Structure formats: C-alpha cells, structure tokens
Amino acid sequence: MSAPTFPPGGTLLDTFKKSFVDVPVDANNDNAISTTEFLEAAESLTTMFDVLGSVAFSPVKSDMLGNVKKIRERQLAAPAESETLQALVINELKTKKHTATEGLLWLTRGLEFTCLALSQNIAQEAEELSTSFRNAYGSTLKPHHGILIKPVFSAAMSACPYRKDFYPKLGDDHANVAAELKTYLAALEKIVGILKAFQDRKEAKW
Questions:
Q1: Looking at the whole model, is its pTM more than 0.85?
Q2: Coil, helix or strand for 63?
Q3: Is the Cα dihedral 44, 49, 53, 55 positive or negative?
Q4: Rounded to 5 degrees, what are φ and ψ at 171?
Q5: CA angle 136, 138, 144 (to 5 degrees)
Q6: Tens digits of per-residue pLDDT, 160-196?
Q7: What span, in angstroms and rounded, lies between the C-alpha atoms of 200 and 54?
C-alpha cells in the first residue's frame, strides 16, 4: 500500500476529492447534511490511514469504506429520498430496514475517532500518535466493540508511526499542514456533532 503524495508546496488535504469543509450543511433545514458530498469526504479521509502506513490500519479503513458503501447503496436505490443524510435515515426506517442507518452510525463513530485522535495530537505537540489514537479509541469506538474486534483496533493503535515521520508525509511546511488540518478537523467535528445529535433522536432509531 503506497502512501499518497501531496503537490509541491501543498498538503495531503489538497489531494482529497472532497473535504468536510466543503460538505453542504443546511442550517435552515435542521442542519441537513448533503449525502453525496459527505460520502466523498468520508472516502477521502480514509487515505489518511494509508499515510499511517501500517497494514494494521487496513481493518479500520475497510470498516469505514464498508459503511460508506451501505449508505451509498441506499442512496442509489432511493435517490429522491436520500439527498441528505437525515432524510436517507428517516426514509429507510420507514421501510422497516436499517442497513444504511446502522452504517451511518458506525461511520460517524469512526469519523469521531479519527477527528479526536488527530485534533488531540495537533494540540499536544509532545504526544505521539499512538497515545492520541488510543485515547480517542477508548472514548469513541471501544465501548461499542466486541471482544473479537478490540484487539484488531488495539494493534492499529500500537502501529502508529512517530509524529516526526507522519507529519512530513502530509506536507513540507508543518505550520501550513497544522493550519489546514485544524480547519479540516473543525469542519469534521461540526458534522459529527450534528450527526450524533440526530442519531440520539427517536426518529433516527430502529
């Protein structure tokens, strides 16, 4: 698995097909999140796991992409009812099915895990990635994982590269990388917050 490269003077985020910064959120319509752009942004984020390098992260990436696939399949099956994530969930649940709805729940947890880990690592400049990812895992995915999957994710945490090796793979200029990453993660954090609040509502449960 070859790590992605970044353009001269740019960052890895410049290579993303879609950034969470560019995902439309309709504040006038209950913070409705556009499905197509959200899924493209989630797919783009998984390339970050390639930069983390270890095959131990393959299950993490596969899990997130598998959940993207479930949501996209529902969107393709009922496009008019799936223009936003919230509409997709509500309309799928009306059919007495919850495949995409459950996929979105797990994808949201995976995105929160990644967002928390990277945000903590940028804020704590002396902290190694393995610590940041382990802490994030404990507060997001771990409480929902069974005894078989926990060791798989724990192995990934232990396999994180050193920060001195990781950040240069995101861009040549560390200050520029940190600034772009903070903006990106703030947008992702906002979307995760909207989704978690929605998923707590009765209409989003099955």
A1: yes
A2: helix
A3: negative
A4: 165, 160
A5: 115
A6: 999 999 999 999 999 999 999 999 999 999 999 999 9
A7: 34
